[in-house]
Design goal:
This protein is an alpha+beta fold and 334 residues long. 42% of the residues lie in helices and 19% in strands. It folds into 2 domains: 77 residues; 237 residues, no CATH class.
């Protein structure tokens, strides 16, 4: 038992030291010398503690030192706060928000960029009022760029005709920042909800992303429309909250997929967490297995018929873009 306890303690010290070193390094990465010094210092402290734990007469001091190390690092960590006041990339510079009047929800700052290339665009926003009573359906969009296991997942709310509102949960990147899975674990990015016209957020991925290119699939979610209304309002609550109280993005805990799942818990009979939510490319398959997508086809057939890249490229920026990308898709009335 004593051996097991000591083994657990060694693992705890090693794990915490590795986490603390990485957290310090990424938090001060703009100053390479300082970041390296702090990370090395934490690593050296952890190594010293591990050595101390192997020597019986030093063990209590080593334990006390570990407690002090934990307290110091966690105190510093708790002081890192998200902000809405940074030099944001243009794509995420303008925060959306909503006003609610009964069943009428007015979205402000709906993004509708006119793209000439992935990073070449004219900025444009508009406001629009949606009637919750007219919500017809919810669609899930999966965009793949790194093989079948990883996808960006977002939702689009169908209010009839060509009134579709897409909401994509993303990182709020500063100018000069790039994507890093590891940095996303250490409070380096803020959370952002892109509220957009489908001609923006879908067409960007189908028509302009080229390095790497993205394969985009659209599926109609099956279920009571009241669930869709509750989910939409839960999104609105979070969007308004982020405007006054920013939050951190986390690669695992608060990302595009995990936050959709968290929001969906507002509904009765919500899905249980699954590894297929962590490996987000498998989200459509998981939804299919749980009866939340069209079941008239096998999943491979549904997958094959749900790709919308060609439709989106043919539709361009036309006003009926949303209708045209859905023509002939399984589970969607024409």
């Amino acid at each position: 038992m004593r051996i097991l306890a000591m083994g657990f303690l060694y693992l705890l010290v090693t794990g915490f030291t590795a986490w603390a070193s990485a957290a310090l390094y990424f938090s001060y990465a703009t100053n390479t010398l300082l970041a390296g010094t702090l990370a090395s210092g934490a690593g050296l402290a952890g190594l010293t503690l591990l050595v101390g734990l192997t020597i019986p007469r030093w063990r209590r001091r080593a334990l006390a030192g570990f407690v002090c190390l934990c307290a110091s690092v966690l105190f510093w960590w708790s002081g890192i706060e998200p902000s809405n006041d940074r030099h944001w990339k243009p794509e995420v510079a303008v925060a959306p928000y909503a006003t609610i009047d009964g069943d009428l929800v007015t979205l402000h700052n709906i993004r509708n960029f006119d793209y000439r290339g992935e990073t070449d665009f004219s900025e444009a926003y508009y406001d629009k009022t949606f009637d919750l009573r007219e919500l017809n359906a919810v669609d899930v969009i999966a965009s793949y760029w790194a093989g079948p296991d990883i996808a960006h997942i977002f939702l689009s709310f169908d209010f009839g005709a060509d009134d579709h509102l897409a909401i994509s949960i993303e990182r709020r990147d500063e100018i000069g920042e790039g994507y890093s899975t590891v940095k996303g674990l250490f409070r380096q990015f803020e959370l952002f909800y892109v509220v957009a016209d489908e001609r923006d957020v879908i067409r960007l991925r189908t028509n302009y992303r080229a390095d790497p290119p993205e394969d985009v699939y659209l599926y109609r979610v099956a279920g009571p429309i009241e669930n869709g209304r509750r989910l939409f309002l839960e999104y609105i609550r979070e969007i308004n909250s982020l405007r006054v109280q920013p939050e951190f993005y986390n690669t695992i805990l608060t990302n595009c997929t995990s936050n959709i799942w968290l929001h969906s818990r507002v509904n009765p009979g919500h899905l249980h967490y699954s590894w297929k939510l962590l490996l987000s490319g498998h989200v459509p398959e998981y939804l299919y297995e749980q009866g939340r997508l069209d079941s008239s086809l096998s999943f491979p057939e549904l997958l094959d018929r749900s790709r919308i890249n060609d439709r989106a490229q043919n539709a361009g920026a036309e006003a009926d873009f949303s209708r045209r990308i859905r023509e002939g898709l399984p589970g969607i009335p024409n």
